[in-house]
Protein backbone atom coordinates (compact mmCIF):
# COMPACT_ATOMS: atom_id res chain seq x y z
CA UNK A 1 0.00 0.00 0.00
CA UNK A 2 1.24 3.32 -0.89
CA UNK A 3 1.54 6.15 1.47
CA UNK A 4 -1.25 7.78 -0.02
CA UNK A 5 -3.35 4.85 0.56
CA UNK A 6 -2.46 4.78 4.22
CA UNK A 7 -3.61 8.30 4.75
CA UNK A 8 -6.83 7.30 3.23
CA UNK A 9 -7.77 4.95 6.10
CA UNK A 10 -10.67 5.94 8.11
CA UNK A 11 -9.75 8.20 11.12
CA UNK A 12 -12.25 6.71 13.40
CA UNK A 13 -10.05 3.83 14.41
CA UNK A 14 -7.00 5.95 15.16
CA UNK A 15 -8.95 8.42 17.19
CA UNK A 16 -10.24 5.63 19.34
CA UNK A 17 -6.76 4.48 20.12
CA UNK A 18 -5.70 7.95 21.01
CA UNK A 19 -8.66 8.39 23.31
CA UNK A 20 -7.97 5.08 24.98
CA UNK A 21 -4.37 5.95 25.61
CA UNK A 22 -5.37 9.37 26.93
CA UNK A 23 -7.84 7.85 29.31
CA UNK A 24 -5.18 5.54 30.68
CA UNK A 25 -2.76 8.41 31.15
CA UNK A 26 -5.40 10.47 32.92
CA UNK A 27 -6.31 7.53 35.11
CA UNK A 28 -2.69 6.96 36.08
CA UNK A 29 -2.24 10.65 36.81
CA UNK A 30 -5.32 10.75 38.96
CA UNK A 31 -4.23 7.63 40.81
CA UNK A 32 -0.79 9.06 41.51
CA UNK A 33 -2.25 12.32 42.70
CA UNK A 34 -4.60 10.55 45.06
CA UNK A 35 -1.79 8.41 46.43
CA UNK A 36 0.44 11.43 46.89
CA UNK A 37 -2.39 13.28 48.65
CA UNK A 38 -3.06 10.44 50.99
CA UNK A 39 0.60 10.11 51.94
CA UNK A 40 1.30 13.82 52.44
CA UNK A 41 -1.88 14.75 54.32
CA UNK A 42 -1.40 14.39 58.17
CA UNK A 43 -3.76 12.21 60.10
CA UNK A 44 -6.49 14.37 61.64
CA UNK A 45 -6.44 14.62 65.47
CA UNK A 46 -9.45 13.38 67.37
CA UNK A 47 -11.73 16.24 68.38
CA UNK A 48 -12.31 16.92 72.12
CA UNK A 49 -15.85 16.75 73.43
CA UNK A 50 -17.78 20.01 73.30
CA UNK A 51 -18.24 19.97 77.10
CA UNK A 52 -14.50 20.37 77.67
CA UNK A 53 -13.48 24.06 77.82
CA UNK A 54 -10.74 25.10 75.32
CA UNK A 55 -9.20 27.52 77.90
CA UNK A 56 -6.16 26.62 79.94
CA UNK A 57 -6.94 24.07 82.61
CA UNK A 58 -7.45 25.52 86.10
CA UNK A 59 -4.73 24.65 88.59
CA UNK A 60 -5.54 21.74 90.78
CA UNK A 61 -6.57 22.77 94.35
CA UNK A 62 -3.95 22.23 97.01
CA UNK A 63 -4.59 19.30 99.16
CA UNK A 64 -5.37 20.27 102.78
CA UNK A 65 -3.09 18.66 105.28
CA UNK A 66 -5.12 17.45 108.18
CA UNK A 67 -3.84 18.86 111.50
CA UNK A 68 -3.26 16.24 114.15
CA UNK A 69 -5.90 16.29 116.83
CA UNK A 70 -4.72 17.39 120.29
CA UNK A 71 -4.35 14.56 122.66
CA UNK A 72 -6.96 14.64 125.44
CA UNK A 73 -5.63 16.19 128.66
CA UNK A 74 -4.73 13.53 131.13
CA UNK A 75 -5.99 13.99 134.71
CA UNK A 76 -3.27 15.23 137.05
CA UNK A 77 -2.22 12.94 139.76
CA UNK A 78 -0.35 13.82 142.89
CA UNK A 79 3.34 13.20 142.64
CA UNK A 80 4.32 10.19 144.56
CA UNK A 81 6.75 11.02 147.35
CA UNK A 82 10.16 9.68 146.75
CA UNK A 83 10.99 6.93 149.16
CA UNK A 84 13.45 8.06 151.79
CA UNK A 85 16.70 6.30 151.71
CA UNK A 86 17.68 4.95 155.02
CA UNK A 87 20.92 6.48 156.19
CA UNK A 88 23.56 4.11 157.27
CA UNK A 89 23.60 3.53 160.97
CA UNK A 90 27.06 5.02 161.25
CA UNK A 91 26.11 8.29 159.36
CA UNK A 92 25.65 10.56 162.38
CA UNK A 93 25.59 14.34 161.61
CA UNK A 94 28.41 16.28 163.17
CA UNK A 95 27.24 18.48 166.07
CA UNK A 96 27.21 22.22 165.40
CA UNK A 97 29.95 24.19 167.02
CA UNK A 98 28.64 25.84 170.21
CA UNK A 99 28.18 29.61 170.00
CA UNK A 100 30.38 31.74 172.21
CA UNK A 101 29.14 34.10 174.92
CA UNK A 102 26.92 36.98 173.75
CA UNK A 103 25.81 39.90 175.92
CA UNK A 104 22.53 41.66 175.11
CA UNK A 105 21.70 44.88 176.97
CA UNK A 106 18.51 46.92 176.61
CA UNK A 107 17.34 49.93 178.59
CA UNK A 108 14.21 52.00 179.15
CA UNK A 109 16.19 55.04 177.98
CA UNK A 110 17.91 54.28 174.68
CA UNK A 111 21.47 55.35 173.95
CA UNK A 112 22.81 54.50 177.39
CA UNK A 113 26.56 53.87 177.61
CA UNK A 114 27.45 50.39 178.82
CA UNK A 115 30.67 49.38 180.56
CA UNK A 116 31.72 45.86 181.51
CA UNK A 117 34.47 45.79 184.12
CA UNK A 118 35.06 49.49 183.36
CA UNK A 119 35.55 48.77 179.63
CA UNK A 120 33.19 50.55 177.24
CA UNK A 121 31.38 48.01 175.04
CA UNK A 122 28.72 50.14 173.32
CA UNK A 123 25.36 51.85 173.71
CA UNK A 124 21.90 50.40 174.15
CA UNK A 125 20.33 48.52 172.52
CA UNK A 126 23.54 46.52 172.61
CA UNK A 127 24.72 43.16 171.32
CA UNK A 128 28.36 42.29 171.82
CA UNK A 129 30.58 39.23 171.78
CA UNK A 130 33.50 41.12 173.31
CA UNK A 131 32.88 39.48 176.66
CA UNK A 132 34.04 36.39 178.50
CA UNK A 133 31.92 34.01 180.53
CA UNK A 134 31.73 34.39 184.28
CA UNK A 135 31.05 37.09 186.87
CA UNK A 136 31.34 40.73 185.74
CA UNK A 137 30.43 44.24 186.87
CA UNK A 138 28.11 46.16 184.53
CA UNK A 139 27.68 49.92 184.68
CA UNK A 140 25.27 51.95 182.54
CA UNK A 141 24.73 55.69 182.39
CA UNK A 142 22.62 58.17 180.42
CA UNK A 143 22.13 61.91 180.64
CA UNK A 144 19.46 63.03 183.11
CA UNK A 145 19.32 59.75 185.03
CA UNK A 146 21.24 58.16 187.85
CA UNK A 147 23.80 55.57 186.80
CA UNK A 148 23.07 51.88 187.20
CA UNK A 149 25.60 49.39 188.54
CA UNK A 150 24.95 45.69 188.90
CA UNK A 151 26.74 42.38 188.99
CA UNK A 152 26.02 40.04 186.06
CA UNK A 153 26.81 36.42 185.23
CA UNK A 154 27.64 35.82 181.54
CA UNK A 155 26.94 32.30 180.28
CA UNK A 156 29.70 30.34 178.58
CA UNK A 157 27.57 29.88 175.45
CA UNK A 158 24.51 31.59 174.00
CA UNK A 159 22.88 34.88 174.96
CA UNK A 160 22.93 36.62 178.31
CA UNK A 161 20.28 39.36 178.45
CA UNK A 162 20.42 42.28 180.87
CA UNK A 163 17.67 44.91 181.18
CA UNK A 164 18.66 48.30 182.59
CA UNK A 165 15.83 50.42 184.01
CA UNK A 166 16.80 53.98 184.74
CA UNK A 167 13.20 54.99 185.54
CA UNK A 168 12.71 52.31 188.14
CA UNK A 169 13.24 53.18 191.81
CA UNK A 170 16.12 51.06 193.02
CA UNK A 171 17.02 51.00 196.65
CA UNK A 172 18.74 48.32 198.67
CA UNK A 173 20.70 50.06 201.41
CA UNK A 174 21.63 49.06 204.92
CA UNK A 175 24.01 50.16 207.63
CA UNK A 176 24.95 48.90 211.07
CA UNK A 177 23.86 51.50 213.63
CA UNK A 178 23.56 52.25 217.28
CA UNK A 179 20.26 53.60 218.51
CA UNK A 180 20.84 56.19 221.22
CA UNK A 181 18.27 56.14 224.03
CA UNK A 182 17.72 58.78 226.64
CA UNK A 183 19.47 56.38 228.89
CA UNK A 184 21.68 53.86 227.17
CA UNK A 185 21.58 52.49 223.60
CA UNK A 186 20.96 49.40 221.49
CA UNK A 187 22.61 48.06 218.38
CA UNK A 188 20.93 46.88 215.23
CA UNK A 189 20.66 47.24 211.43
CA UNK A 190 18.94 50.08 209.61
CA UNK A 191 17.83 49.12 206.07
CA UNK A 192 15.71 50.59 203.27
CA UNK A 193 14.07 49.40 200.03
CA UNK A 194 11.44 50.99 197.76
CA UNK A 195 8.87 49.33 200.00
CA UNK A 196 10.03 51.20 203.12
CA UNK A 197 12.54 51.66 205.91
CA UNK A 198 13.01 49.47 208.97
CA UNK A 199 15.15 48.99 212.01
CA UNK A 200 15.92 45.47 213.24
CA UNK A 201 17.26 45.04 216.77
CA UNK A 202 17.14 42.67 219.68
CA UNK A 203 15.24 45.33 221.62
CA UNK A 204 11.77 44.77 220.22
CA UNK A 205 10.46 48.02 221.75
CA UNK A 206 12.83 50.05 219.54
CA UNK A 207 12.28 48.09 216.24
CA UNK A 208 10.13 49.70 213.55
CA UNK A 209 9.13 49.47 209.86
CA UNK A 210 7.08 51.87 207.70
CA UNK A 211 6.72 53.05 204.08
CA UNK A 212 9.07 55.64 202.59
CA UNK A 213 6.13 57.94 201.95
CA UNK A 214 5.61 58.07 205.73
CA UNK A 215 9.22 59.18 206.30
CA UNK A 216 8.62 62.71 207.58
CA UNK A 217 12.10 63.81 208.71
CA UNK A 218 15.33 62.29 207.44
CA UNK A 219 18.42 64.33 208.29
CA UNK A 220 22.19 63.76 208.56
CA UNK A 221 24.63 65.70 210.73
CA UNK A 222 28.02 64.65 209.45
CA UNK A 223 30.02 66.46 212.13
CA UNK A 224 27.97 65.00 214.99
CA UNK A 225 27.89 61.70 213.12
CA UNK A 226 24.16 61.50 213.69
CA UNK A 227 21.22 60.39 211.52
CA UNK A 228 17.69 61.48 212.44
CA UNK A 229 14.66 59.40 211.38
CA UNK A 230 11.08 60.57 212.11
CA UNK A 231 7.87 58.75 211.13
CA UNK A 232 4.98 60.92 209.99
CA UNK A 233 2.73 61.31 213.04
CA UNK A 234 5.00 58.99 215.05
CA UNK A 235 8.25 58.68 216.92
CA UNK A 236 11.76 60.04 216.23
CA UNK A 237 14.96 57.94 216.29
CA UNK A 238 18.56 59.11 216.43
CA UNK A 239 21.26 56.80 215.09
CA UNK A 240 25.04 56.75 215.00
CA UNK A 241 27.59 54.05 214.21
CA UNK A 242 30.85 52.75 215.57
CA UNK A 243 32.94 54.05 212.64
CA UNK A 244 35.46 56.84 213.09
CA UNK A 245 33.45 59.06 210.70
CA UNK A 246 29.90 59.39 209.37
CA UNK A 247 30.66 58.14 205.81
CA UNK A 248 28.45 55.06 206.03
CA UNK A 249 25.60 57.03 207.53
CA UNK A 250 26.03 59.67 204.83
CA UNK A 251 25.82 57.13 201.97
CA UNK A 252 22.74 55.53 203.51
CA UNK A 253 21.06 58.92 203.84
CA UNK A 254 21.93 59.86 200.22
CA UNK A 255 20.54 56.66 198.68
CA UNK A 256 17.31 56.73 200.68
CA UNK A 257 16.72 60.40 199.92
CA UNK A 258 17.12 59.90 196.15
CA UNK A 259 14.71 56.99 196.13
CA UNK A 260 12.17 58.90 198.20
CA UNK A 261 12.35 61.90 195.84
CA UNK A 262 11.97 59.69 192.76
CA UNK A 263 8.92 57.97 194.17
CA UNK A 264 7.37 61.31 194.97
CA UNK A 265 8.00 62.54 191.37
CA UNK A 266 6.19 59.51 189.89
CA UNK A 267 2.91 60.30 191.62
Description:
This protein is an alpha+beta fold. Among the domains are: 64 residues, Immunoglobulin-like (Sandwich), CATH 2.60.40; 93 residues, PH-domain like (Roll), CATH 2.30.29.30. 20% of the residues lie in helices and 32% in strands. The chain has a seven-stranded antiparallel sheet with strand order 11-10-9-8-14-13-12.
Topology of this protein?
Elements: H1 3-7, H2 11-40, E1 101-107, E2 113-116, E3 119-123, E4 126-128, E5 134-141, E6 148-154, E7 158-164, E8 173-180, E9 185-193, E10 196-201, E11 208-210, E12 215-221, E13 226-231, E14 236-240, H3 247-265
Parallel strand pairs: 1-7
Antiparallel strand pairs: 1-4, 2-3, 2-5, 5-6, 8-9, 8-14, 9-10, 10-11, 12-13, 13-14
Concise synopsis of the structure shown:
The chain is α+β, with helices and mostly antiparallel strands and 267 residues long.
Descriptive key words:
alpha+beta; 20% helix; rod-shaped; Immunoglobulin-like; 267 residues; PH-domain like; single chain; four-stranded antiparallel β-sheet; seven-stranded antiparallel β-sheet
